[in-house]
């Protein structure tokens, strides 16, 4: 008999107005890596919350090592050896690596004080398992994102976890860092006997490291604990979205004769950018590619006036200008920025859909004495909400009640409504499901066809290559090179990587 | 529920309204003088000022901040007005504008310091409270202005509606109306709310968050000066101790009204109507308890308890606003 360390049997869960899970099941084999897939809203997060004791299921069973268990609190889950590594970092940034690792079980001296030598000693062991060559006394905030991720896994291991849940672990990692992570995951599965539930939107990763796959669609199983050998990418996508994937290809031809809209000449910034020069033509999509920390988002923030440009020239339609605030970027120069961090910088979570979608246009539609009504606003913004097919019961629904994909659509809608000439789009599809992702890709191409010039920041190489006309490769706050994109993945990606490892 | 007004019965304001009615019923049965013409008139004058003070705090809480210098600004504005009218002999109407200007200016100073230094307004206004009050005491040598023009002081004792209601209350209600209009029907009002709710997102969406925050502080100073004018006409003089030491007597009602009324302490959500009801509730309870003849200290005790309960409500409100429905 195969040994299952975790079994979910016909679990139901309902929230007011939605049935989040409807008889969802899967079985996790001991010592395997099991992919849990599904679009946003398919019920993955709910299932994870049930496994980690945050929510309690309405019906169905949860078995750990073939024994039925009830998890009332996250502590119960930890006791039964289940740990989750979240998308959001759960380390305390001002504490040292060692303190973070040992936080739940700090060793003490005979006087009852924290024993730092012992912390160093014990945490070293777990760091070594994760091939992390760092001093346990290093402060967490000094680490790279990738290393923080590994520390979190080390922390989970230190809690003697037998089951690890990884929720989109690679969303902020570079390809190399991801590969490194996968090697380590395979190693801990082999050496430590850990089993892993792996949640990701990137199917390449699933095929790379997973043994079995469970797909959820609308809270139900589209497939249950299927061996990866019986599946291919096409089948998997079909299981997830219920139909075949439509791959978006840009058919636009830019011959480089279009008018230059924006030009940067030897720009140096407060944040440390050195000699950045490039041109953006009308209706062109240029991509900014680079590793996390290359300074792409930071460059965008300097461009819209949130941070200072120290020297060099920014030229818009032939005139050298200074942009001193996002407000003048929007109102004077029609430049918009769609943030990568939609919860912190993109949306106002405690406000409703219409207020979020219209925030950029209030100044434009106001009448005498600043008079604005909901009707005036919705007649201006509703077309965009409808065009983007934002799924919401009402435009007066709180934005925090919408799914991630729909939230992203609203943060795009507000910039469409603003009618910008230049749009900087930062990581538009991180954490977004395949269907919405394809939709957003199509939208970006349509926008460019409509005459908007776009600067696309993305760490998703396939996305970059299918959308951009030219790709600017950044590294360490410098522009390393520009790659002309002919949409042929192999050659273009090789060219990009060359500039990155220059 | 597209475009439908959310069912009023389930709102926080409706609950408040019920509480107000309940307390009116209780006090009018338990006490003798509660419904007397004299008491209702007195009540309407106090309520008017408490509403204004509550609104003054509300517009800063909107930014996620506080204005501890509220009372100090009020007293400074009132004393400045006393000086204008009594010492300088400036007519009443221009003096009123000067008082409002002074309140707005002191609010602007708070706003500028908060925005330029990035220090939380709690600390900034704690400091300016002391500075403003100290300066005022020095300049006036703690002398009151008691010979104000009669046209000015008469307004405070004027009685309308069969001598039941003070015109001060109408002034406060009109101010509520104006603020409601500001926040509901103007682009500036919406921007103020957006800036308070999520400054980063608002800034990136082309709103000058700093300017908005300064506006809020200016508005707060303006409303504090309004309250000060009303208090001065009521007592017929501008007295340095009219709002207690450092103007701190105003702080409890100032917090109570908006927090009870459903203004989120973390900013970005407010209710003008709720703040008004909150002020009414607080005044009612204070007045009723006085009539029952409980001691001054007990009243403070009760108000403290009410503030704590209101803050707890604020926490649950925040929780339910953001986390209740997890439709992912």
Structural commentary:
The complex is a heterodimer of chains A (502) and B (328). In chain A, 35% of the residues lie in helices and 25% in strands. In chain A, helix 14 (374-387) packs across helix 15 (404-418). The N and C termini of chain A lie far apart (53 Å). Chain A has 18 helices and 20 strands. Chain A is globular and about 70 Å long. Chain B has a domain at 35-248. Chain B has helices at residues 12-30, 37-61, 70-87, 92-117, 121-140, 150-157, 167-185, 187-197, 199-204, 209-235, 251-261, 272-292, 296-323. In chain B, helix 3 (70-87) packs parallel to helix 5, helix 6 packs across helix 10 and helix 7 (167-185) crosses helix 8. Mean pLDDT of chain B is 87; it is low at 1-6 and 323-328. The chains are: A alpha/beta (502), B mainly alpha (328). Chain A binds chain B through residues 15-18, 20, 40-41, 45-46, 304, 306, 325-327, 329-331, 336-337, 339, 344-351, 355, 359-360, 362-363, 365-366, 369-373, 393-396, 398, 400-404, 414, 418, and chain B through 1-3, 185-191, 193-194, 197-198, 200-208, 264, 268-269, 321-322, 324-328.
Chart the SSEs and their pairings.
The complex is a heterodimer of chains A (502) and B (328).
Chain A: E1 4-15, E2 18-29, E3 33-37, H1 44-51, E4 59-64, E5 67-68, H2 74-79, E6 82-85, H3 97-101, H4 116-129, H5 145-158, E7 163-167, H6 175-192, E8 195-199, H7 203-209, E9 212-217, E10 220-227, H8 233-241, E11 260-269, E12 276-281, E13 285-289, H9 296-303, E14 309-316, E15 319-321, H10 326-331, E16 335-338, H11 342-346, H12 353-358, H13 362-365, H14 374-387, H15 404-418, E17 422-426, H16 434-449, E18 453-457, H17 461-467, E19 470-475, E20 478-484, H18 489-500
Parallel strand pairs in A: 3-8, 3-9, 6-7, 7-8, 13-18, 13-19, 16-17, 17-18
Antiparallel strand pairs in A: 1-2, 1-4, 4-5, 9-10, 11-12, 11-14, 14-15, 19-20
Chain B: H1 12-30, H2 37-61, H3 70-87, H4 92-117, H5 121-140, H6 150-157, H7 167-185, H8 187-197, H9 199-204, H10 209-235, H11 251-261, H12 272-292, H13 296-323
Helix pairs in contact in B: 1-12, 2-7, 2-10, 2-11, 2-12, 3-4, 3-5, 3-10, 4-5, 4-10, 6-10, 7-8, 8-10, 11-12, 11-13
């Amino acid at each position: 008999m195969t040994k299952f360390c975790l079994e979910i049997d016909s679990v139901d869960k309902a929230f007011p107005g939605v049935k989040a899970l409807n008889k969802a099941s899967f079985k996790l084999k001991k010592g395997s890596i099991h992919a849990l897939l599904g679009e946003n809203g398919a019920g993955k997060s709910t299932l994870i919350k049930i496994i980690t004791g945050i929510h309690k299921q309405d019906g169905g069973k949860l078995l750990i090592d073939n024994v039925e268990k009830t998890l009332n609190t996250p502590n119960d889950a930890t006791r039964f050896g289940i740990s989750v590594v979240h998308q959001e970092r759960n380390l305390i940034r001002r504490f040292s690596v060692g303190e973070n690792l040992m936080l739940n079980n700090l060793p003490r001296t005979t006087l009852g004080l924290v024993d730092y030598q012992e912390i160093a000693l014990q945490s070293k062991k777990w760091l070594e398992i994760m091939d992390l060559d760092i001093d346990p006394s290093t402060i967490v905030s000094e680490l790279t994102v990738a290393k923080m991720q590994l520390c979190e896994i080390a922390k989970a291991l230190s809690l003697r976890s037998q089951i690890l849940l990884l929720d989109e672990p690679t969303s902020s990692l570079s390809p190399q860092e991801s590969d490194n992570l996968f090697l380590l995951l395979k190693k801990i599965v082999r050496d430590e006997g850990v089993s892993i539930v792996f949640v990701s939107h990137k199917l390449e990763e699933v095929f790379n490291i997973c043994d079995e796959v469970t797909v959820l669609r609308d809270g139900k199983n589209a497939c249950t604990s299927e061996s990866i050998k019986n599946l291919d990418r096409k089948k998997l996508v079909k299981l997830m979205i219920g139909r075949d994937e439509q791959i978006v290809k840009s058919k636009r031809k830019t011959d480089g004769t279009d008018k230059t809209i924006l030009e940067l000449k030897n720009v140096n910034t407060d944040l440390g950018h050195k000699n950045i020069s490039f041109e953006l033509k009308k209706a062109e999509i240029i991509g900014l590619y680079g590793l996390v920390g290359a300074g792409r988002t930071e460059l965008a923030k300097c461009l819209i006036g949130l941070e200072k440009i120290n020297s060099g020239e920014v030229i818009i339609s032939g005139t050298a200008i200074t942009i001193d605030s996002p407000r003048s970027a929007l109102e004077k120069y029609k430049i918009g920025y769609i943030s990568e961090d939609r919860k912190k910088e993109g949306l106002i979570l405690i406000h409703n859909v219409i207020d979020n979608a219209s925030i950029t246009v209030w100044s434009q539609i106001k009448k005498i004495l600043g008079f604005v009504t909901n009707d005036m606003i919705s007649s201006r913004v509703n077309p965009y909400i409808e065009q983007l097919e934002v799924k919401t019961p009402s435009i007066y629904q709180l934005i925090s009640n919408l799914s991630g994909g729909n939230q992203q659509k609203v943060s795009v809608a507000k910039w469409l409504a603003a009618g910008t000439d230049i749009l900087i789009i930062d990581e538009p599809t991180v954490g977004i499901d395949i269907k919405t992702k394809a939709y957003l890709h199509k939208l970006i191409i349509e926008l460019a066809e409509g005459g908007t010039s776009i600067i696309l920041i993305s760490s998703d190489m396939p996305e970059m290559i299918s959308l951009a006309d030219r790709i600017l490769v950044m590294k360490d706050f410098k522009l390393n090179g520009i790659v002309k994109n002919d949409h042929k993945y192999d050659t273009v990606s090789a060219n990009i990587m060359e500039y990155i490892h220059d | 529920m597209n475009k439908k007004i959310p069912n009023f019965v389930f709102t926080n304001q409706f609950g408040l309204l019920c509480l107000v009615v309940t307390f009116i019923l209780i006090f009018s049965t338990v006490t003798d003088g509660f419904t007397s013409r004299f008491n209702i008139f007195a009540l309407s004058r106090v309520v008017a000022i408490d509403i204004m003070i509550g609104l003054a705090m509300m517009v800063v809480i909107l930014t996620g901040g506080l204005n501890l210098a509220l009372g100090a600004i009020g007293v400074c504005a009132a004393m400045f007005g006393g000086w204008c009218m009594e010492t300088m002999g400036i007519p009443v109407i221009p003096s009123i504008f000067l008082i409002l200007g002074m309140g707005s200016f002191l609010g602007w100073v708070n706003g500028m310091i908060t925005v330029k230094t990035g220090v939380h307004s709690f600390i900034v206004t704690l400091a300016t409270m002391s500075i403003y009050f100290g300066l005022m005491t020095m300049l006036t040598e703690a002398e009151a202005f008691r010979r104000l023009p009669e046209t000015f002081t008469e307004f405070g004792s004027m009685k309308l509606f069969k001598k039941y209601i003070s015109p001060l209350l109408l002034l406060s209600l009109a101010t509520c109306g104006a603020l409601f209009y500001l926040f509901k029907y103007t682009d500036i009002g919406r921007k103020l709310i957006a800036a308070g709710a999520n400054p980063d997102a608002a800034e990136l969406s082309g709103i000058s968050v700093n300017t908005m925050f300064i506006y809020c502080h200016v508005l707060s100073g303006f409303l504090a000066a309004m309250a000060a004018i009303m208090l001065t006409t009521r007592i017929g003089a501008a007295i340095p101790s009219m709002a207690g030491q450092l103007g701190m007597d105003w702080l409890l009602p100032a917090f109570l009204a908006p927090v009870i009324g459903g203004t989120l302490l973390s900013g970005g959500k407010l209710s003008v109507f709720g703040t008004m009801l909150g002020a009414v509730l607080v005044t009612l309870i204070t007045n009723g308890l006085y009539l029952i003849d409980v001691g001054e200290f007990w009243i403070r005790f009760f108000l403290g308890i009410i503030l704590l309960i209101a803050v707890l409500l604020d926490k649950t409100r925040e929780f339910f606003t953001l986390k209740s429905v997890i439709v992912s």
